[in-house]
């Protein structure tokens, strides 16, 4: 090897056939690379690692998951496995194939920093984090309730992967212009788009450099911004923001219309009952996740990035503005609200 660090390319997706096709294309470009595939079996509580190269299978072992958290179990298997491969000094690069639907952010953080193992920066170099996505029917899939709970879970995984990835590989299935527009409104502005799995260029992936800070900021509730994609095909992205908090009671009323009229909403907000808490808003496929994600360090603000059909934007905006505290309500708000029950204990704990 020409470097002390093993270059690593990560590939994730939610469809086995599409992901395998992209991996094969990368392997053909990088015949000397080693491939590490991880498989999680939640029911059995096991994680399997399979390592192979051009000569055949190098390693195939199954171990018990040490964490109920799948992302944690994945990282704690992945990092030692890659460090072993780097230590063997046999391969010029490694391709990592993640379990279907795996979160990319914790993998990127584990392989791009020393947060999990201080040896990582010395021995591994994360080049590209890749999401293989089928854009066909994407708009329909993210509409509230489409596909039921299982379908919503898969689509939410698709959205999370494409919002973090350096490279978005389109599976090649025929997609409507509206689907492709929505994809552009969700993917990072600087993401490289590959129009089919057959067009995956392993050498090009290996030539990239994954920037953990940039990717993490793009998915952080505090730093969410529109991707800059042009409004087209009835799809738009708007920012709803204010220095004022949301009124807890009126927010309860506003959540349903905001969720139903949105394709994807993400960002941060605050409540007068929890003035120090940064509360994350993460809505996709009609499912809304709320919770404390940080503490305010500086000026508080409410900032939501909403991607929706053009015809639905005003409904979302009206519900948002209805939920905002008024100037009159802000007078003496601390005395009336701080530390008192606000109805959000289920999501954020006691105020």
UniProtKB/TrEMBL annotation:
Residues 235-324 form the CobW C-terminal domain. InterPro entries: CobW-like_C, P-loop_NTPase, Zn_Chap_cDPG_Synth. It comes from the Bacteria. Signal peptide: none annotated. Pfam families: CobW_C. This is CobW C-terminal domain-containing protein. The lineage of its organism: Bacteria, Bacillati, Actinomycetota, Actinomycetes, Micrococcales.
